[in-house]
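Review box. Two proteins, two foldings.
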Amino acid sequence: MVADHRRDHLTAVRAALSVAVYPIQYLAALPDTLQNTVFESVSTYSNLVAENRRLKQEQLVNKTRLLKFSELEKENVRLRALLESSFKLGEQVLIAELLSVNLAPYEQIVVVNKGGRFGVYKGQPVLDANGVVGQVIRANPLNAEVMLITDPNHGIPVQLNRNGIRTIAVGSGRIDTLILPLLPNNTDIKPGDLLITSGLGGTFPYGYPVGTVTSVAPQPDKPFASISAKPIAHLDRSRELLLVWSNTTPIPLFPDSEKTAQNGDGSDGNE
């Protein structure tokens, strides 16, 4: 020890002994090293599992939000289409949403979320962004029942946009078919002709699109041809509908200011 302390003669011996002792030191420290390694691995795995679970939950939430955003975008498109249609109509309109649908074979009625407290009335015409949907058959205070034009009990006065021929379009009980039962075999009508409201009957104002003719089959043994049409309105897909008020107020022969001026001149207006 004195020799090593004073002159470091045993440095080489110490180095040789450290090399020989190193495996023993490594084996002695191995359990602790393995324990730390295993603990870190388990901890890292647990963190990864927890993070993976959290990311999956966030992904599910984000997908759900994207679905909602997609639906809101589609709804925005539909409302824009309705808004554009209301400007084209030039009449007072109210947007209503569907509450329930009853599409039984012999009764096609939907319920909307606007009723009498909004001024909805029986017989009021109902449209979507594409064409005529039907008319109100019952106006409750908070909702209203709408009979679709394809209901077998519904008939709507129409005319051919191409030549002005007038007839009645009757519901067939099928959501995609109208029937024109009162046109003779020699009527000038062909597939693709556009049907619009004729304005007769007092329910539907003139010019609303109703449907397009799909088939024309003359029946020699009968006076009337077999004619069918397809509704233009999306009766099976529309969620928002337009309730329409027509301006039926009569236009006076003379404006009030002109009548006042005439009366002020001593005229009684009967001349």
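Next protein.
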Amino acid sequence: MVPPIGTGHMTSLHQSRELAEAAAEKLRVFAQPQRLMILSCLLGGERQVAEIERLTGVSQPALSQQLAELRRASLVMTRRDAKLVFYSLADGDVRTCVATMEHMLAGADGPAPISQATPPSIRRPIAIARGRSDPSFGAAAFARIG
């Protein structure tokens, strides 16, 4: 059995076809604009569906579909309070992955700077990925933390 990505298992992707396939599947879930918008929105903390809809502009039917996909992929979790349903990122690995994507890809001027305000759990993977000369390292590091 292949351990889930992000569980601390340190096998490199090039050493395991199964692990590479699991990483590719996880990345496939991330690789959809509405899902990325939802995940980015949840970086700000737990939110109700109506709030996610308002902040992202994703309409209710599409939002429900994308949230279901994110739940199936174990990227978000839910909490009920009476009739209200709250969504949040599933864990620190998902948070790090989404925040890393934002740092690496957001903005037209290239990657966002790493500042002291950036949490250490996010600063380290970004700094490591940027500091390596091997272009494949960034993707492998990203897949390991996702």
